């Protein structure tokens, strides 16, 4: 039988494990001080997934300009393709749309990261804007957006590019 996936808020003692998952997942990881800052400023948006008490993934989001903003999502490579990323993003989307009443959720993704882009497309995200040279290494990004289902009108989307 498949082990149950638990979802809970991040705790500071989880930081080393989150950094391990970041290192296996990204070319450049967020510095520790930024992860702590994101947690301190919006603790409800920093969520981890666990199996048998062991952290196997995380998602970080915040509210900016009235929109939900997914900053990072990653799953330990040994636990990928088991639906953990889907559980994490669905949890945060529900929080943003239902509890925070945002109209949109935005995120940035590397143009070259086709697997991540397909993951987001399957969940209703659409390309909104091309962001040239967005990343430190000069790679371009795509700003993707998901609109709340019951939203009848298109509202302007204000975003901060940090």
From TrEMBL:
Lineage: superkingdom: Archaea
Pfam families (alphabetical): Acetyltransf_1 (PF00583)
PROSITE patterns: GNAT (PS51186)
GO cellular component terms, semicolon-separated: NatA complex
SUPFAM superfamilies xrefs: Acyl-CoA N-acyltransferases (Nat)
Annotated ranges, domain N-acetyltransferase: 5-149
Gene Ontology MF terms in the entry: protein-N-terminal amino-acid acetyltransferase activity
Keywords: Acyltransferase, Transferase
Alphabetized NCBIfam families for the sequence: rimI (TIGR01575)
PANTHER family: N-TERMINAL ACETYLTRANSFERASE (PTHR23091), N-TERMINAL AMINO-ACID N(ALPHA)-ACETYLTRANSFERASE NATA (PTHR23091:SF4)
Protein name: Ribosomal-protein-alanine acetyltransferase
Organism: Methanotorris formicicus Mc-S-70
